């Protein structure tokens, strides 16, 4: 790839440098943790100041595309799994649509008495057992998300279903329940010992914690879902459109 900037172009130099960097980081020679050329060499090659180059680099660092370490250099960040909140799908469906292979590391089904919070959400009593589904999932090389789902008794799930299938496909195909609406709460937190052991990380490591409240077409609650994501493996993006 030819590394050059058009100094006669009306496009600002830092914008040209940014676009050039976006192309560079896709090249094979900069994958697998290999460093980009150092700032001095790259600035000299492009015939721009280090300040101008750093402006472009900072943009890509901010976007999570580059990682810069003092005394080491700049490298391409590992690709993050991402999820969007618009037109949401089940986790399996979304990863399949993105061509990302997913492995189930653990799958546990049990019947439990709901906590007061869950019972209030479902508008049921705490002495009525509900189905609890726990799944540890990730790429073939390791887990990055731990899901805990609780289901309203109205769903008629028995616990004998093949939960390797997409969850909302099971509800729709087998029980004629369509998951229509999702309301979510997302926060950053630290992994406790239990979550750390599941996600193969250290206690206290940053994780993304997401609560999802799922409703059917009549806006009746059907699922209360908790998701714990490794922060260095997942990014959750939100797309909004002004009315």
UniProtKB/TrEMBL annotation:
Residues 11-79 form the HTH gntR-type domain. One of its GO terms (molecular function) is DNA-binding transcription factor activity. It holds the Pfam family UTRA. PROSITE patterns: HTH_GNTR. It comes from the Bacteria. SUPFAM superfamilies: Chorismate lyase-like (SSF64288), Winged helix' DNA-binding domain (SSF46785). InterPro entries: Bact_HTH_transcr_reg, Chorismate_lyase_/UTRA_dom_sf, Tscrpt_reg_HTH_GntR, UTRA, WH-like_DNA-bd_sf, WH_DNA-bd_sf. GO terms for biological process: negative regulation of DNA-templated transcription. Keywords: DNA-binding, Transcription, Transcription regulation. PANTHER family: MANNOSYL-D-GLYCERATE TRANSPORT/METABOLISM SYSTEM REPRESSOR MNGR-RELATED (PTHR44846), MANNOSYL-D-GLYCERATE TRANSPORT_METABOLISM SYSTEM REPRESSOR MNGR-RELATED (PTHR44846:SF1). This is GntR family transcriptional regulator. It comes from Pedobacter steynii. The lineage of its organism: Bacteria, Pseudomonadati, Bacteroidota, Sphingobacteriia, Sphingobacteriales.
């Amino acid at each position: 790839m030819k590394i050059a900037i058009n100094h006669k172009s009306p496009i600002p130099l830092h914008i040209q440098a940014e676009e050039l960097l976006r192309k560079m980081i896709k090249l094979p020679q900069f994958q697998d943790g290999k460093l980009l050329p150092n700032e001095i060499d790259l600035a000299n090659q492009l015939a721009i100041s280090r300040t101008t180059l750093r402006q472009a680099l900072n943009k890509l660092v901010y976007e999570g595309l580059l990682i810069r370490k003092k005394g080491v250099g700049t490298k391409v960040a590992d690709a993050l799994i991402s999820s969007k909140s618009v037109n949401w799908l089940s986790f399996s469906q979304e990863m399949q649509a993105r061509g990302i292979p997913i492995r189930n590391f653990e799958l546990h089904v049990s019947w439990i008495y709901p906590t007061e919070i869950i019972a209030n959400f479902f508008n049921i009593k705490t002495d009525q057992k509900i189905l609890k589904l726990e799944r540890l999932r990730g790429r073939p090389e390791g887990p990055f998300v731990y899901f805990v789902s609780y289901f309203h008794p109205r769903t008629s799930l028995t616990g004998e279903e093949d939960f390797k299938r997409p969850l909302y496909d099971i509800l729709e195909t087998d029980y004629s329940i369509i998951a229509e609406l999702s309301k979510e709460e997302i926060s950053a937190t630290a992994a406790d010992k239990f979550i750390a052991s599941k996600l193969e990380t250290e206690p206290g490591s940053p994780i993304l914690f997401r609560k999802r409240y799922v409703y059917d077409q009549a806006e009746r609650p059907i699922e209360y879902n908790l998701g714990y994501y490794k922060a260095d493996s997942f990014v959750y993006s939100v797309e909004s459109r002004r009315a």
